[in-house]
Amino acid sequence: MNTTPRSSSIETLSKLLAMMEGSARFARDSVKRAAAEFGPAWEDDFAAMLQRFYRSDAALLDAVKGYGAFVMDSMRRQKRFEQDLSYPAKTYAEAAAEVYFNDDYMRRQYLPGLLLSHYLWTHHYQQIEYFKGFFLTWMERQRITEFVEIGVGTGLYSRLALQHLPRLRGLGLDISPAALRFAAEHVASFGFSDRYQTRQQNVVEQPSERRYRAVFCVELLEHLADPVALLKGLCAPDGKLFVTAALNAAHADHIHLYRQPQEVLAQVDAAGLHLEHCFFAHAYAPNQPGQPVPSALAMVLSPRP
Asked: Of all helices (H) and strands (E), which one includes residue 21?
């Protein structure tokens, strides 16, 4: 029986909710909240990703289980952070060994959890909408034909850019082989692999001589011991950067604690960058005054003359 795009989206999300009932019941409310806040456009967007990237029920169920484990781990770490008001002491090398080079953990939990969180966590999806509205529209107006994403992760932002601009070509850089594979598969599932390449590279240790006019760097700063070193010299003098940071958000690989947006903006200034505009949102309302709440800061930056 043929189905309309809307009925197909509803069917996919119903299947997702049924899987969550058995494997991640607490996550069902996230689906319902996002649908109520963002409406049919969100449902179609989310369902399209699930249909293309997770082509079998078994693959989708694995993603649901990975998301459930990702959220439970994040909640435990966040509770500890609320008590200690600090992240556990950890070097970048230690975080990389624990997370980025742990292929099983990345494939089963971290990457599917992170991907689904961008649709199911309100402040993450608002960040996506900000990226589309403020950065991709600039790229379209300027007729940008190439971009680089540093710390490609799940490949979501690269895929969104390729989807929005049919003549665009992109490069995704990451230190994690698992992330590079995941991102390439994500992009390929939408049919954009001929316009996209990935490469294993640590940009801080191995700076690229190539300067792009459009650079994405999503939720990477808090993973680094020296975020300013990354921000320096990332894009062409006439280019722009889309950069985000997570604040007060305890995860296994977060080692640089940002408490307030001003701390991120100070590093932006120290790196010789100009803030054109930004978006900031909390993940949820604090339960009591003074409680640190995970937050997202997204910025459009340009090099200072």
From this structure: helix 5-23
Write down the pLDDT at residue 93. 95
pLDDT 10s digits, 257-267: 999 999 999 99
Helix (H, G, I), strand (E, B) or coil at 280: strand
pLDDT in tens, 140-184: 999 999 999 999 999 999 999 999 999 999 999 999 999 999 999
Cα separations in angstroms, 212 against 49, 85, 95, 170: 28, 38, 29, 10
8 A C-beta contact, residue 174 and residue 200: yes
| CATH 3.40.50.150 domain position(s) in the chain | 122-303
Q: Domain 122-303 adopts which CATH fold?
A: Rossmann fold (3.40.50)
Whole-Å CA distances, 34 to 39, 90, 115, 122, 156: 8, 34, 15, 6, 18
* pLDDT above 60: residue 202: yes
Q: What are the E-state strand segments in the chain?
A: 146-150, 169-174, 196-200, 212-217, 235-247, 273-282, 295-303
